[in-house]
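SEQUENCE-TO-STRUCTURE ENTRY
===========================
What this section holds: a protein sequence and its matching fold, both as plain text.
Tokens: labelled as protein backbone structure tokens, with as many entries as the chain has residues.
Question of interest: how does this chain fold, as expressed in backbone structure tokens?
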Amino acid sequence: MLNNFPSGLNYYYFLGAVFTFLTQFIIRQTINDEKILAQLEENKKNPKVQKKSSFQARLEEMMRQQQAAQQNKKQ
């Protein structure tokens, strides 16, 4: 399939595929899927109020100010 490419590129693709396979294999062996799924289900049942970042708070405040300005402009 890759016969028209230089041998170094074929070797690079091969090594990339091998390292990707090994990485995925190691991750799948070390991670417990059932435990993660149980934690996700628990988080769905007990949603916590997330703290807003300062950027998000400033953005919401600016949005409120613009809405108030538009309402005052219409009156």
